[in-house]
Amino acid sequence: MKYYIVAGEASGDLHGSNLMRGLYAEDSGADIRFWGGALMDVVYREHQDGTGLVRDYRDGAVMGFWEVFLQAGKLLRKVRACKEDIAAWRPDVVILIDYPGFNFRIAEFAHKAGFRVFWYIAPKVWASREGRIRKLKAYVDKLFIVFPFETEYFTRKGVDFIYKGNPLIDAVDRSPALGESRAAFLERTGLPDCPFIALLAGSRNGEIGTMMPTFMEFAAKMHALPEYAGYHFVVAGAPGRDRSDYDLAGNDAFVHIVSGETYAVLHQAEAAVINSGTASLEAALIGTPQVVGYRGAPITFLIVRNILKVKYVSLANLILDRSAFKELLQYYFTADTVLTEMQRILEDEYYRERMLADYAEVRERLGGSGASSAVAKAMMQEISRN
């Protein structure tokens, strides 16, 4: 069977790679073509010859209303190229992974062109832009959701869905990073043997450029405190990103970059400062205390603040419907506020233990392992019914 998968960012690449493993396991004749990244490409090359990767997600990935507006021409050219490639390859099903700004256009095209359309990892219509539900009903044959709180929401909205758990549990639990000793990690990465704070700035150019100045100011201020002079800071570089993408601003004596090792860095860190996104939920599943920060273009933040319908931006907090950890957004995301919260995480044992207990509840609510394989099997069953 021919599967065309469209993933547009680092988290989509991760989930897409696990889904592909499931599809190959369930369908011995699976032929996959995809927009994604290095993780999906590795799985493809393990099972198929040739070239399945059409476009790497790092080629111009953007987020935010204003940022998308500035890149509109390039994005529209990518949409057109994707449509043309789908039409030429003629898959049995088009599988869209999150990335709604791009994928809603592909869903409409694919549906009208007569292709079956599955959407894996629902667009966050429960948070904002609820009007998109109409498009889900019109253009998507089956929605595959990954959060327990979504079941009641989509049932109430009359959207046909399948829920088989959350694939991040599989990704985290089978990662060799969680079984690696600290000595082996330090030897492999060349990092000094000292406590460190992980810094995760995201994977897109805009995110990195916005987050890094605050990260570096925070690192300098914390390192200057006598009680934390022995601490270092490790930037978890996104896969495929070069060191030059991260401006260390003269702090490179105590700030390091380790690329493509997010789980390992989180596992070995005392705590983390994380750009809101999938990495925040990954940190919760790994068990790394954290503070989340986010800053976008002012006009983007203004728009989001006016349309957002949820109390939190971090998935773990949303799953619990309470604050397991602090979210510092836009103007509240400063070096001083991050430092204050980090000191609390490291110095207040009760606060830290309560956060870890909340993490355990997050994991329990997400369910057990095997979600990716279960989704792949469910997709094949859906296809065989018609």
Description:
This protein has 386 residues and is of the alpha/beta class. It folds into two domains: 2-165 and 370-384, Glycogen Phosphorylase B (Rossmann fold), CATH 3.40.50; 173-366, Rossmann fold, CATH 3.40.50. Helix content is 50%, strand content 16%. Helix 1 crosses helix 8 (167-173), helix 1 packs across helix 17 (371-384) and helix 11 crosses helix 12 (278-286).
CATH topology-level name of the largest domain: Rossmann fold
> What does the largest sheet look like?
7 strands, parallel
Count all strands and give the number: 13
Q: Termini separation (Å)?
A: 14 Å
Structural class: alpha/beta
What is the CATH superfamily label of the largest domain? Glycogen Phosphorylase B
Count of DSSP H/I helices? 17
Mean pLDDT: 90
Q: What percentage of the residues does DSSP assign to strands (E)?
A: 15-25%
| Order of the strands making up the biggest sheet | 3-2-1-4-5-6-7
Shape: globular
- What count of structural domains? 2
Low-confidence stretches: 62-70
In CATH, the architecture of the largest domain is: 3-Layer(aba) Sandwich
